[in-house]
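Q: Convert this sequence to structure tokens.
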Amino acid sequence: GPTGLTLSALLSAMGVDSVTLERATRLTTHPQAHFVNTRSMEVFRSVGDLERVVRAASPPLAHWREFRYVTSLLGGSTLGVVDQFDGRATAESEASPTTPTHFSQHRLARELMTRARGTHGRGEAGVLEGANVESVEEREDGVVIRASVRSADASEASTTTTREIHADYCVVADGANSQTRDKLGISMKGERALQHLINVHFKSKDLAKDLEGDPAMLYFVFNPDVVAVVVAHDLRQGEFVAQIPYLPPVQHVDDFTPAVCARMLRSAIGWRRGDAKSMDILGVRAWTMSAEVSETFESGDRIFLAGDAAHRFPPSGGFGMNTGIQDAHNLAWKLAAVTKNIASPSLLKSYEAERRPVALRNTVLSVENFEGVLKIPNALGLPPLAADVLRDAVSALPSIIPGSLRKNILEAGLSVGRAQCGTLLTTDNPLGAARRATVRSMCEDPNGTLRLQFPKEDVGFSYEPVGRDGEAKLYEPGTLKVGVRVPHAWLEIENGEKLSTIDAVNRGMREPRMTVFARGFEGDATIEDALSAVAFPSQLIHIVDAPARDDGLAFDVEGAWKNKIESFGDRVLVMARPDGHVEYIGDDANALAAKAREAFRVT
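A:
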């Protein structure tokens, strides 16, 4: 998945040998997450051309800027529309050199896998596919991973061999249902089952053509036949996923055959019976929406959890994949620094201290977002709690009542509820008019229902010590503060190249290093002397107010950096870690050096 593959790419960029064990023998084609937020796109700017490739391959903003609440995708009533970019022509902002985008996880994984397969380490291929990990054991001098590895020849005949891999460290990123996490005895804390859903992956060029003149990313559908969310992953390819709530144990995934799903989808779309419109059902999967965070992100001193193995969120807000990518970003430079002997192993203890509070914060936000999603069905007279009560009542019926009859009873009750979304909702009557007005008002209110962008949680999270709630602190994008990602400001360097302060941290980095942005210190050798006394690689960038062609000088093109630091004085040093988060702000080079020794665990 994206977490493990991002980690592989970042380690390779810093010259660290690694092997990625992948359970599958081929990449999935089932879309999952699809929103890549700004901070993840910033991370991808440090992975070769990945950010550029993702942006170029993403659908245009017009295809995904809106969420719609409808009785059907075509020909039905539109209950409300939310423009997630408030009418702006682009997704650009002053807070970043890049933008968020809509790019399906299976396509992102393909790009990452291409890069990971090109890496080599310890005599192994960069990715060992078909590897089912049986055990991960920490020893005094490293970690031993045992895996059974399937391989197939041209005739598709498979053989299985047992492999034993010795490594310095192991990162467990094997997904929400991580077997390795369970074997390590690490438990999850939170809400295990907020909702049960059926994911239907389908393609339809006909539907894509029908929608191309007035597209959206998400369609929340409420009608007498079906309640569902349809995600338009890419109209250019006619690729969609529908999410349909279901109620186990009365209902089962096997009840949702391709024929049943096709019938429900045609109603959600608004195609009439007999229409010569086609769709291909490519996959039907059940999944459970959870809100859990692992009790710890580490096992011993050498094993770490990342991505969905460490935290499981509702998809509302798109934080699952992005939080995992950013776990990898936090951990990669620390593993590189330790394995290259430029930092003490104690540096790795900061991973859990920094990333678990972010996961807790994003869990709370994702649950709040999910509750925001439920405001609409509640307003339409479809409270999800009522469906749960009905399910529980049917489950409690005497055991002599067969399962088929239980399903019929449940469906009859659900049909009565969905009838609220028929003519009662769409015709000119007082109740329908009131409900439509309520939904429209919710969509016009910035906090009325589900949002897509969360700037503070995206680029304003901090790695500073947390409060009593254990959650990461948040700041407005662009805030200059210890613990927060360095603010974006455009710089022009000696060859006339324009780059962001964020890119300046990553530029040409072949091993972990700190970056010091200095203003008002030109010609002052005390900074170089102080940095040379710290056994951690560094680069020094003097930011100046006029164009300069000297090496080490960078012109503050728009004056943004000056504005960021003016509250700290005329002479300001800002030290950023290899992942771009600020470790020091001040005017004392010796204090900066002392902070570097402390932060990077060096002497």
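The chain has a mean pLDDT of 93.
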